[in-house]
Amino acid sequence: MPNLFSYGTLQKEQVQLETFGRILRGEKDIVVGYQLKMLEIKDPEVLRKSNQKYHPILEFSGNSADEVEGVLFQVSDEEILHADEYEVDDYKRIETVFKSEKKGFIYVGK
């Protein structure tokens, strides 16, 4: 099963229920070399699910001192596609290695 790293609204139970149909279980992890920025969300469905106008977005810095904490969830291949649908077009999904040395997917700014 793939790992999906959440540093924002995908950690909210309501978002998980509406996106995946279940509450996800995960463990804390860290992605290195990124900084958090904020993105204004305009998609009405994402706004409704998250109840949050501004969402965090990862921006690559390349600096090993930059770390972003989040949660690494195990999801199915089908659930990854649901997460892709949830994230607005300003995000893209890439694979990376976390501080724990596990591999997984993150959403970063395009």
From TrEMBL:
InterPro entries: AIG2-like_dom (IPR009288), GGCT-like (IPR013024), GGCT-like_sf (IPR036568). Residues 4-108 form the Gamma-glutamylcyclotransferase AIG2-like domain. This is Gamma-glutamylcyclotransferase. It comes from Chryseobacterium caseinilyticum.
